[in-house]
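Dear colleague,

Thank you for sharing your sequence with our group. We've completed the structure prediction you requested, and as agreed, I am returning the results in plain text so they can be pasted directly into your records. Please verify that the sequence below matches your submission; if there's any discrepancy, let me know and we will rerun it promptly.
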Amino acid sequence: MRTSRLRTVHPVLWAGWVALAAGAVLCVVGWYGVSGERYAERQLPYLASCTVPGAALVIAGAVLLAHGRGSIAAARVEELYGLLVAAEPAEPPETGRAALAPLAVSGDLLMVPGGTLWHRADCPLVAGKAEAVPVDSKLVASGELTPCPICEPAEETD
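Please find the predicted structure tokens below.
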């Protein structure tokens, strides 16, 4: 699924490479002509006829190459956007209470020493961790620990 814009970019790139090559050749010819002349008044024609136009062609070629590369990138982004918009979602998102339920429902509360959160025992953040210890109610009461936003444990500890 190539776009027509991508097809029109290739001539711009070719023109850029041709201008760059022609400019390089003119700069070399101008340098060769200037290097063979001893007096400045005899060097000026080479500068005016070869080196200055050669430098302008090198700059023009660089601009064309940069524009062509940017156009290719823009065409690819448009193509990817078209593919993204054409794709349909796999299934609609869940609505209702089931989507809002916490991930963990255990009544046992745990914490990790040095941590700042307290969790339910089956919370994915502490499940299976050997270093998890039961929650100290003094830490919860003092406000040093906050409830986990993932498993949403109950505020009361026994």
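Summary note from our side: The first helix runs from residue 4 to 35.

Kind regards,
the structure core
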